[in-house]
Write a structure and sequence with these properties.
Elements lengths: L3 H5 L4 E3 L11 E4 L4 E5 L4 E7 L10 E4 L4 E4 L10 E4 L4 E4 L10 E3 L6 E4 L15 E4 L4 E4 L10 E4 L4 E4 L7 E4 L4 E4 L10 E6 L2 E5 L8 E4 L4 E4 L10 E4 L4 E4 L9 E4 L4 E4 L10 E6 L2 E5 L8 E7 L2 E3 L4
Parallel strand pairs: 1-2
Antiparallel strand pairs: 2-3, 3-28, 4-27, 5-6, 6-7, 7-8, 9-10, 10-11, 11-12, 13-14, 14-15, 15-16, 17-18, 18-19, 19-20, 21-22, 22-23, 23-24, 25-26, 26-27
Length: about 325
């Protein structure tokens, strides 16, 4: 087998920082980072089809990552309490929510620790919003303290112990969850429903899009909302993942679109489109480089995964 030196004409270099313009295939060892790295070539952002949900539905919530996700609630032939867990390959039905509902909020960094809150009852009559909050421990859902204001179609961010719920219908209130109680905090500058959210705690969140169709984006610092740069394409009810510095917005109703935009902490940039245009889907993921989208309307059981390939990557050595 040929060595790296025989192929490239030199040994792997030990450097103090990544080279400014490495050639494709170049390998180096970054001493401060303690990492062996390679330039894997042109960066490609793309969605790929994955195995479908067992129970197709829209208006559902999600938590977790692109390889360990949770889907719960939703609406198909009425309200749903179904919960499904994703292991990176397949969806498996597990124990249901105690209260079936749709257009609910969801938060959680894993598929074993999540929070479900708000939502609405079955369609066909006057909407009845819920304040109910439930906590998932990997096996069962348990009811915990309610929202102060019952509502649905709001944006959500955070984890099971530190979450935020903002906007929605019939109220545009913002509430912060500290692991035990919900507390009402300062409202969005632009009140809206069907708003998307990203963020890893109740002190750092991003709100974007919403109904009526808007491109407005706001950032939350734990005390106040500040308007920042808009989405390139106004939309409502898109999927969303990430943090205040690394987020992804995908799909939405304008009408149904497949457009995906990546947030770098300052601006939104269009990136690879979804394979299936849809809205009111569930989503899971931690950044603008990896996401899972599942369910939605008008297609209600499709699952797609978003990944970034190429560029400078770390080589796993163990």
């Amino acid at each position: 087998m040929a060595t790296y030196k025989e192929i490239n004409g030199q040994k792997i270099q030990n450097v103090s920082s990544d080279p400014p313009a490495p050639f494709t295939g170049q390998v180096w060892y970054n001493s401060p980072a303690g990492a062996l790295k390679v330039n894997a070539g042109s960066i490609v952002a793309a969605w790929s089809s994955q195995n479908n949900l067992n129970e197709g539905r829209g208006d559902l919530a999600g938590a977790g990552t692109s390889t360990a996700a949770l889907a719960f609630g939703g609406n198909q032939d009425g309200k749903k309490a179904f919960t499904e867990v994703y292991n990176g390959t397949n969806w498996t039905e597990v124990n249901n929510l105690n209260t079936a509902r749709y257009r609910l909020g969801g938060a959680g960094a894993t598929n074993t620790a999540a929070l479900a809150f708000g939502g609405v009852n079955i369609p066909g009559g006057p909407p009845y919003p819920y304040a109910i909050t439930e906590k998932w421990n990997g096996t069962n859902w348990t009811e915990v303290n309610d929202l102060n204001t019952a509502r649905y179609s709001g944006g959500s961010a955070g984890t099971q112990t530190s979450a935020l719920f903002f906007g929605g219908e019939p109220s545009t209130a913002v509430e912060s969850w500290n692991g035990t109680n919900w507390n009402t905090v300062n409202s969005l500058n632009t009140g809206r429903k069907s708003v998307a959210g990203a963020g890893d705690s109740n002190t750092a969140a991003l709100a974007f899009g919403g109904n009526p169709n808007t491109a407005a984006t706001e950032i939350w610092n734990g005390s106040n909302w500040t308007e920042v740069n808009d989405l390139n394409t106004a939309r409502n009810a898109p999927g969303s993942v990430g943090t205040t510095t690394s987020a992804l917005c995908f799909g939405g109703n304008n009408p149904a679109i497949a457009l995906t935009e990546s947030w770098n902490g300052t601006n939104w940039t269009e990136t690879g489109d979804m394979g299936t245009a849809r809205y009111v889907m569930g989503s899971a993921g931690a950044s603008n480089t990896s996401a899972l989208a599942f369910g939605g309307a008008p297609t209600n059981n499709v699952t797609e995964q978003f990944n970034i390939t190429g560029g400078i990557v770390t080589i796993e050595t163990t």
